[in-house]
Amino acid sequence: MSVFNLVTDCMLRTALRIFHLLAVMGLMGLPGGLGAQSLSAMLTEWDPAWPQRAGITAVGYSQEQNYALDNFTIDLPVEVDPTLLLSEIENEVSQWGTKMDFWILPFLNVHAMVGVVDGQTGVGLTPAAVELIGADQIAVNYDGTVYAGGTTLAYGQDWWFCSVTGIYAYTDVKGEIESIPSWMIMPKFGVRHEGLELWCGVTYQRVAERQSGVFDLDGLVLNYDLELEAEEEWNTQIGFRYRFSENVLLTLEAGFGNRKSMTGHLEWRF
Is 194 exposed, middle or buried (0-12, 13-18, 19+ CB in 10 A)? Predict the structure, then answer.
């Protein structure tokens, strides 16, 4: 495990323990004596200084990352290590959707999203594979519907805040790729001034993709089965949110590293 992975893993574990402890103690939330209130009071007596409880958001997301080979089988007429046939594996995906969320407590938000996804996975082939198969890559385009749900724990004071968000997404795709499950965990730390918030953080993403299909080589049909996973599960995030009014907010976030991503949210709260 790399030093970066060790550091981010420690950060994540520490953040989760802190949030769990604060939630149990009933101390999480915004300033103004929140810690002295019972959970039942928080549920029924919503303070106007806290976030507006419900929101609906238009979401746009795109990412590019390299995949690592988990397993590969192909029906060749001779015995060949199939991993020697593959080179770089690249994935690009874009999705658009609608998210709804609700603050159950001042420090606990739940959310769900549905949207459409469009992606491409390109599996590069080595020169030996190109000569054997007659193609320079296995390129699979896919589209489908993505469903996601998650929760956020948040804590903050006047000028700073931190949060941990967990999301599970299930992408129902068409074609040669099976449905794609993924997990994301995103701890963040940020500052705010008036209507502007700025933050940085890291994102852990675990995703698995499986492809199957055939190569037709002048009547010789070769079946293949390919299992892929993210080459690097962690990346760095920076972002900002601007509040145009009490009801309208804009969020932009960018990810760096092996996985490059861009997220945009236009949010209406009520």
Answer: exposed
